[in-house]
């Protein structure tokens, strides 16, 4: 990537208009002195933000582009888990194809980085991991995809899964996933010892789905924080969902938040509206990194997700009652810098030297652009255009 | 309206394809026998639903089409109320113009009926009522607008407001509004006696904003139900927001729901994600009419609303964890038949004899169309096309 690009008349984060020089896939400088031979692109007064970060989704099992799945699944968590494992074969939810579809949709919506949890279980084995790694390789110039080996059906309760988790890491999955150590795996110590053992041996980050609420979730969170400290994994561990931080006992929530901040454990929220949720503003004020994600996008769990991280920012704002313009910008932060810090991205952002992963938003002010969620005018990955006016340049299968 | 329309290849509520004959603004029959001389419109396989019902909004004070308002309002309810009264003059929020903008946006999104609360206070007097009534008249062939006289700044605490409320009814406002009898007006008996006194004398329905939570809200709700019974107003009273029905004490919520059902008092929800909310499914199962609304659309209270009642159905679904296809349809019901029953609309629906207030949705199934929220293909009001492909035919000021 040696082409120079001169992107004119853009407003970084909604500020004053300027131009950006991009070389070798990175932001070189701001200002209106066009370099010689640079390809000029007119930003037309759009708002410039860094690439959106989809920090929690499930690329392997979206139903995008498939015939509509009529959902009549039972109400319990285990109903949804068992149904999904069965439907994967019945419907033919092919991980490589489906992850391509969702990842290109994400790119069209301005996401330049995705962390995807990918199911590992004794039915499907590593088929999901292989499929998403294939997509990750095919889309390497369009969107960065990080793969979490995720024991969706439980690990200790399904013997053989822990071995598959290790094989997933050897195959190329970058992150060790986990799931409800008590509620699903029935053995919090055992579950976390395996997860953190893998992270320690392979030098990998950890990202644990923690749906457990109230005191049970708080206990699991304490165990996670203890292991993070003991293994020196500060800054490398994420707790996804973390509904227990929405418990009514505010003193206890305060102690947990202090401990998360001290151990630099990150929180990922999808800002769901029917569950208790982590208090985003309070966490950020305490110095905890908060990232956001779509979770499932139109899958057998539910029909709603659409992979739009601007809409997710709106959901974070609505859920946390963030109404002022500075608060709306804070909601967006969970979908940009928050996700980047959670994933440990290097050279992320708008400063000179940053990788030119950029999005141009149509909008009067930053807050207006966020709440309006119009089609993205331009999406760049490492200085190359990957989507224009809401459409990815590469066509999905 | 005597033109005959033959709308072909549409799928009522996502069912089998058929054609609809429309005459004199009403649905005459289904089936593929085209009447002579009818104007034929190809529905192209779209899903046919009755007009969406925006059952709670504030047309008089949206900022749509005005320069972006930078929100830095304080956190208390009274901060937002006082700020708004001040900004109306400072920004020049002209009720006739602003209500035209929002009502036409609503029409473009498929709403054929709107209930709008309109501020009545001793600063603005009846300017809001006059402006929205003007819009209601101008748009009479495009969208039905019902006006609620709404004492946003309090009634008893601002002497003169009750007199203005009565004048608003004489001027043409159809519904008597109210607001937090205890929390705002500091006199629940006094507030409700005035409201229900007006309803009784003028023979009007009642729609009360009740933000009061927990026991306080439950007490106000009891007072409202008592007056509904005493005055024979069953089926004519709506409680908007009703956050107290989201209180944790399930036995008490059950008693309130039984009393609402018995007195045929309706519940309006906006399905907010940061507040406790009425349990939609439980209410509907108990026979209570549940309607939905956007509440404020981009105003000085907050930037988020967009007047899309399909998006509101998604919010109702997300907030109430409605995931199955039949549950997603139930969420839409709050934005169609629920609103129609709340407002007492006659001849609403898809049955022969109903008024031809219709929307064509692009979608594979009803649930798919709802969650996808694509631009509405066609919107008809009394058999006339008022919007196509997401755009209203009439241009907003």
Protein model, in words:
The structure is a homodimer of 397-residue chains. Chain A has 397 residues and is an alpha/beta fold. In chain A, 35% of the residues lie in helices and 23% in strands. The two termini of chain A are 26 Å apart. Chains A and B meet through helix 9, helix 10 and helix 12 of A and helix 9, helix 10 and helix 12 of B.
What is the N-to-C order of secondary-structure elements of chain A (H for helix, E for strand)? EEEEEHHEHEHEHEHEHEHEHHHEHEEE
The Cα radius of gyration of chain A reads: 21 Å
Shape of chain A: globular
Share of residues in strands of chain A: 15-25%
The helix-and-strand class of chain A reads: alpha/beta
CATH architecture of the largest domain in chain A: Alpha-Beta Barrel
Distance between the termini of chain A: 26 Å
User: Share of helix among residues of chain A?
Assistant: 25-40%
CATH topology-level name of the largest domain in chain A? TIM Barrel
The oligomerization state is: homodimer
Q: How many individual domains of chain A? A: 2
Number of strands of chain A: 16
Q: How many DSSP H or I helices of chain A?
A: 12
Give the largest chain-chain interface (CB within 8 Å). Answer: A-B, 34 and 34 residues
Specify the biggest β-sheet of chain A.
8 strands, mixed
Spatial strand arrangement across the major sheet of chain A: 3-2-1-4-13-14-15-16
Q: Which spans of chain A have pLDDT < 50 for at least 5 consecutive residues?
A: none
Output the CATH class name of the largest domain in chain A.
Alpha Beta
């Amino acid at each position: 990537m040696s082409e120079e690009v001169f992107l004119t008349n853009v407003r970084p984060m909604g500020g004053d208009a300027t131009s950006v020089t991009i070389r070798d896939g990175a932001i070189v400088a701001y200002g209106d002195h066009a370099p010689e031979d640079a390809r000029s692109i007119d930003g037309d007064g759009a708002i410039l933000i860094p690439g959106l970060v989809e920090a929690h989704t499930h690329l392997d099992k979206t139903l995008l582009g498939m015939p509509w799945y009529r959902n009549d699944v039972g109400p319990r968590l285990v109903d949804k888990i068992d149904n999904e494992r069965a439907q994967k074969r019945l419907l033919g939810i092919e991980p490589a194809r489906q992850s391509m579809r969702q990842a290109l949709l994400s790119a069209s919506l301005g996401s330049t980085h995705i962390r995807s949890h990918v199911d590992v279980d004794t039915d499907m084995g590593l088929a999901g991991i292989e499929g998403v790694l294939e997509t990750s390789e095919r889309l390497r110039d369009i969107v960065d995809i990080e793969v979490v080996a995720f024991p969706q059906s439980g690990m200790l309760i399904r013997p053989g899964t822990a071995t598959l988790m290790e094989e997933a890491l050897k195959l190329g999955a970058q992150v060790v996933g986990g799931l409800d150590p008590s509620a699903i795996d029935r053995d919090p110590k055992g579950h976390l010892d395996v997860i953190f053992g893998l992270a320690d041996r392979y030098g990998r980050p950890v990202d644990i789905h923690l749906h457990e609420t109230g005191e049970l979730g708080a206990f699991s969170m304490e165990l996670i924080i203890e292991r993070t400290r003991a293994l020196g994994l500060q800054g490398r561990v994420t707790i996804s969902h973390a509904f227990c931080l929405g418990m009514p006992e505010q003193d206890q929530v305060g102690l947990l938040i202090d401990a998360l901040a001290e151990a630099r454990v990150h929180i990922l929220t999808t800002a769901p509206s029917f569950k208790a949720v982590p208090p985003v503003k309070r966490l950020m004020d305490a110095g905890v990194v908060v990232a956001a994600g779509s979770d499932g996008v139109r899958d057998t769990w539910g029909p709603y997700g659409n992979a739009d991280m601007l809409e997710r920012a709106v959901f974070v704002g609505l859920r946390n009652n963030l109404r002022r313009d500075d608060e709306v910008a804070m909601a967006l932060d969970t979908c940009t810098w928050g996700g980047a810090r959670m994933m440990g991205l290097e050279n992320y952002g708008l400063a000179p030297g940053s990788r030119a992963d950029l999005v141009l938003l149509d909008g009067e002010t930053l807050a207006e652009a966020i709440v309006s969620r119009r089609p993205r005018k331009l999406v760049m990955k490492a200085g190359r255009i990957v989507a224009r006016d809401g459409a990815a340049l590469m066509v999905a299968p």
